[in-house]
Amino acid sequence: MNPLLRRGWFDRLVMAGLTLLALAWIAPLLWVLALSFKPNEFLLRHTDVFLAPPYTLANYLDILQTSQVFRWLGNSAAVALLQTVGVLILSSLAGYGFARCEFPGRRALFALVMFGLAVPAQSVFIPLHRLFSDWNLQNTLAGLALPGLAAPFGVYLMTQYFKAIPTELEEAALLDNASRFKTFFSIVLPLTLPAQATLGIFTFLACWNDYLWPLVIATKPEMYTLTRGLASTQTNFAQSEGLGFLMAQAVFAGLPALMLYLFFQRHLVTAVAGTGKS
Hints:
The protein is an all-alpha fold. It contains 15 helices and no strands. It has 2 domains: 1-34; 66-275, MetI-like fold.
């Protein structure tokens, strides 16, 4: 058989396999989306027929009629934005320092930061809660956002990306008597836009979907994030409102994160490719 023809058949088989895997991955998402448009009384009898009518928007209207849902949405947006901006700033500065600056203990300190990747966030909830309670930061936006600023993955990503940038660009600026900070902000930092976008997406999604820390630190309904608030309505009304209402909540909570990912997805491949350079 012609090698080119054999390669063509192999590529088709690989594409068919990837298509099947993609369909298997997306099927539960489509099931959730379809059930969110079904009347709850219909779902009491059927949950397996999700493409056929009837359809309704009542489940989404019930969410919008929840008294504090837009406040929860605003809390989630504010916390996610604060945490994302903070992580981008701190990770960029730390990554540049580890990639470009020589100082005593640099390797040991970087190894200590990387060790943070192995520490589960849940294992430090008790000391964090006591610390933030002593600082009177319980039920505040700062209390919700500050723990997420410790981002070992962000430091690693930015360090690897800074290492991939040629040092000649900085050396030319330094020869022109530019300061280290001016070189960083004017020349090096703009080149890291793909990595910044990728880190921003990961940070925003992790904060937006976080449930455990808001459950611990936010005890007043007006300070709930969207995940915490919707979970509280499920606890109170899940059995009476039905499965369609729960599915609509899942879709409603996931839409902002999905739109953010679709908007910035083209930067992901560029950033990952950049971290692979030495």
